[in-house]
Specification:
The structure holds two protein chains of two kinds. By secondary structure, chain A is of the alpha+beta class. Chain A has three domains: 56 residues, 2-Layer Sandwich (Uridine Diphospho-n-acetylenolpyruvylglucosamine Reductase, domain 2), CATH 3.30.43; 111 residues, Uridine Diphospho-n-acetylenolpyruvylglucosamine Reductase, domain 3 (2-Layer Sandwich), CATH 3.30.465; 109 residues, Enolase-like, domain 1. Chain A contains twelve helices and 14 strands. Chain A is globular and about 60 Å long. Chain B contains six helices and five strands, in the order E-E-H-E-E-E-H-H-H-H-H. A five-stranded mixed beta sheet of chain B has the order 2-1-5-3-4, with helices on one face. In chain B, strand 3 and strand 4 form a beta hairpin. The chains are: A alpha+beta, B alpha+beta. At the A-B interface, helix 2 and helix 6 of A face strand 4 of B.
Chain lengths: 308, 161
Amino acid sequence: MVVSEIPPINITARNTRIIPFEYEYYEPRSLKEALELLDRYGDQARILAGGTDLLVKMKARLVEPRVLINVKKIDGLRYIVEDGEQVRIGALTRLRDVENSELVKKYIPALHDAVKSMGSIQIRNMATIGGNLCNASPAADTAPPLLVHNAKVVLSSVGGDRVLPLTEFFKGPGLTVLKPNELLREIIVEKSIAGSSAFKKVSRVAVDLAIASAAVYVEVEDGFIRNARIALGSVAPKPLRAVKTESLLRGLRIDSREVLNALKTIDEEISPITDVRSTSEYRRYASKVLVLDALEVAYARLKGGVHG
Amino acid sequence: MVRVSFRVNGEPVELDVKPSELLINTLREKLGLTSVRYGCGIGECGNCTVLVNGEPVLACLTLTVDVDGCEVLTVEGLSKSELTRVQKAFIEEGAVQCGYCTPAFILMAEYLVRSKPEPSIDDVREYLKGVLCRCTGYVNIFKAVLKASGSGRGRERVDKG
């Protein structure tokens, strides 16, 4: 697609001063109450968490739910706790809480990098980690760090919970495997103990969406890569792991040219589009550079023993 | 309609609102607090920033029903008689051009001064990056905020940065 063929985004052509339609509004006080409402209204309902994505879409009438379920008043879904070799994060945890968490900084450094780079302080005070995942943007910055930390998501409904690896959660732009009566309740993240991680992205201005992003988790022994995990954002219909490239990195000297060669395989694993933010070609190029940069930062953290 | 009660600039407010009503419109149109500015409406310009329970949020992406029971602060509620240190510094440093974005910058600066003593220029940039000034008068705004926060060598550092 050449640049002149890129269709304009019409969001600002709408009146964004108001929400131009009415809906039934609920404020459940418990998870049980929220799940019952979801079970009753199913796909007629939308969940309101931080609102930084959903309300924008509602203003533009891109979504027009008949029922809005505001889950922010539910106690006990906003937490970051250590649990053995994992960290559990409540879906309603604000990005600002994630940013300020010592646990995240120490054990999920790539996620700390990512939230620091997201939006503004105002946005991070509102937006939730669960909302960022459920919005399922290919550019969701929390996704690549969580993917390289082997995150799992806990999906709740009146029938009980199911736990899925995050790799199986996204289906495409704006699409997840959540059933109409399910709510994302918790994210379970593997700590970096033997290795470390980092996240990098390029965007046009500070508060903009990513043009491309990458997270890397790496374990290194005597200068050789023992284990590496790579995840990429904004370069495919959903955030994804580059498993082929990961397997090629295993066993290589971390400072060798072979690492650069292995990163070329990323080209086969991604399918970036050209849109208003960038061209497909640039995204391909940037992805490799971002992975290399993130690898360097993660390795420096590992050597330095500092996770910050 | 839903009955909501919250505090705005220290005063109790009780209103019946539609669940779809946005906080920016309640504040501007029902309460006359026109320091809260409409900019982009999609969370990019930050001009509608207000403090809810002391934390900055965007009033154009907040439902009024959602601040039930909360404490909302706009620039009108900052000072009853004398201007705050931040407000004085904005005047002294000429940090106001057309003035449209000024209330949002003042609130973010107040929030910074309260939460981070002796901020660096990078801290100031981080705290203020969510507010856009289309006169692009950022340098004087940064100087004013550094001055108000007690980081005295503000002028020199901003010019270098």
